[in-house]
């Protein structure tokens, strides 16, 4: 018996909307990119590259919350960025982009889990 996070069709609709919103936001962020030369005023949450490194470590330690394999985008995000820390020209801006990107990956994973749960429930009902 699957434990249900989906209570009704409205939940599915909200999950779909969340997925579409995060996909749109991620596409926008991807176009900017953490190492883009575009001016990203307002992202001032971190003062040093060291703090950025600490955040990336935090993400890495918790990446088992995501599917723990190399193809997982959240794990890949960490792997792709960890070697770039010394090259960052603006740790403040880059960290904020990484935080947003990580959160979006997380939301997309939650959406995929909801879809899987719905499919599992349908299979249980048929059985």
Helix and strand composition category: mainly alpha
**N→C terminal distance:** 11 Å
Enumerate how many helices there are, as a single number.
Answer: 4
Low-pLDDT stretches are 1-6, 29-47, 63-70
The general outline is: elongated
Number of domains: 1
Q: How much of the sequence is in beta strands?
A: under 5%
Please describe the biggest sheet, giving its number of strands, its sense, and whether it closes into a barrel: none
Mean pLDDT level: 54
H/E series, N to C?
Answer: HHHH
- What is the total tally of β strands? 0
Helical proportion?
A: 55-70%
Q: Mind telling me the C-alpha Rg?
A: 17 Å
Please provide a written account of the structure.
The protein has four helices and no strands. It has helices spanning 9-32, 49-61, 73-82, 91-126. It is an all-alpha fold and 127 residues long. Helix content is 65%, strand content 0%. The radius of gyration is 17 Å and the shape is elongated.
């Amino acid at each position: 018996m699957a434990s249900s996070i989906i209570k009704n069709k409205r939940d599915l609709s909200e999950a779909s909307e969340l997925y579409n919103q995060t996909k749109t936001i991620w596409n926008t962020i991807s176009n900017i990119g953490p190492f883009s030369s575009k001016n990203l005023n307002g992202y001032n949450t971190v003062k040093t590259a060291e703090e950025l490194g600490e955040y990336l470590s935090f993400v890495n330690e918790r990446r088992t919350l995501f599917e723990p394999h190399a193809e997982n985008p959240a794990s890949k995000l960490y792997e792709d960025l960890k070697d770039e820390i010394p090259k960052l020209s603006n740790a403040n801006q880059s960290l904020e982009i990484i935080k947003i990107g990580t959160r979006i990956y997380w939301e997309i994973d939650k959406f995929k889990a909801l879809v899987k749960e719905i499919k599992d429930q349908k299979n249980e009902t048929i059985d």
